[in-house]
Structures are given as C-alpha cells and as structure tokens.
Specification:
CATH class: Mainly Alpha
Order of helices and strands: HHHHHH
CATH architecture: Up-down Bundle
Structural class: mainly alpha
Helix content: over 70%
Length: 171
Amino acid sequence: MSEVVVPLGSALAIAGGALGLAGGLMGSTLGIRSAGSAGVSVLSEDPTYFRQVIVLAALPMTQTFYGFIVLFYVLYFVVPAMKGLTFTQSTVLGWSILAIGVAVFVGELFSAWYQGVICANGISQLPKTRGAIMTNTFILAVYEEFFGILAMVFALLAIMLAQSLIPSIIS
C-alpha cells in the first residue's frame, strides 16, 4: 500500500480553503436557526405568511456558497500550481492562504449569523405589519449579505495576489 504525502504548503492552503467553507456553514446554520425559529412562531399564528418566511429564512444560506467558492478556488487552481514551487515558497503561500481562510471564516460566519438575526426580527414583525415589513427586512438583510460577498471577493483577490507575489519575493 503506497502512502500519499501532501506537502506542507498544500495542506495549509487546503485547510485555509476549508476554513472558509466552515465559516459559511456555521454562519448559515446559526442564521437559519434564528430566522427559522421566528418563522415557526409566526406561522403558528398565521400560516399565510409562509412564502415570506421561507424567503427570509433562506437568505443566510448563501454564505455557505461563498465559502465553497473559496475552497473550490484553492483546490482547483492554487494547490495544483504549488507543485512548481520550492518547499519554502509553497509553505509561505500555504500559511498565507491559511490566514486568508481565517478571515473568510470570520466574514462568512458573522455575515450569515447576523443576517439571520435581521431576518428573524423582520419575520417576527410580519403579522403586526400585515406583511409590509417584508421589503424593508429583505433590503436590510442584503446589506449584511454584502459583507459575505466582500469576504469571498477579497479572499480570492488576496489569494491571487499571494500566488503572484510570494514566488517572486522568495526565490
């Protein structure tokens, strides 16, 4: 049986990408839990708000996709390109991507979690406002969503920058 050895730099990069996905998963779980709990209360009073509750409760789910996009980029583009680097270059790049992954973890976690809090508050007000709060809640939730998008975009840009700079700095 042959042993598979993953170079340190690649392992660190994979861990960084996985952290991004983990932050999205954790944040989405917490956000949907908040919004879903509020939705159950509202639907027990008035089931006619089902469509609004489903839309608002599902919003925190998107940060999981953003974390997955970061992981996919690392696995598909970064790790294969690391094979041509020296041990030192790939290790420094791996540590850099791990640090970026921590930032993505935090960004996706809090973006989804607090988006769920915003949605939960809006859901709880649906009966009181006869559904009029839906549009305002959606807009406020999208503001929080923007931070999840920024976490992903900034991470991809930082990874690309690290990929291009580190090999030339450490040669």
